[in-house]
Specification:
This protein has 75 residues and is of the alpha+beta class. Helices cover 36% and strands 23% of the residues. It contains three helices and three strands. A hairpin with a 4-residue loop joins β2 (31-36) and β3 (41-46).
Length: 75
Amino acid sequence: MGQLSGYRYREIIRILKRFGFVFYRQAAGSHEIWYNPLTNKYTTIPNHSGDMPEGTLKAILKQAAIDVDEFIKLK
């Protein structure tokens, strides 16, 4: 297990809000688009039960231009 394992949807959203992200709109299926007006970045987040796969969370952070270490600090 890596450093990005064990995060659930609600915890990810809580941390992204601290970075300035707000809900933008519902996307296809159970996916949501979140937007940060300060950085003008968008990220797509799947709203699924259970832990988020590490690769998916890494892709979310890459879209959001958030460093993994900064994300972990706000846990």
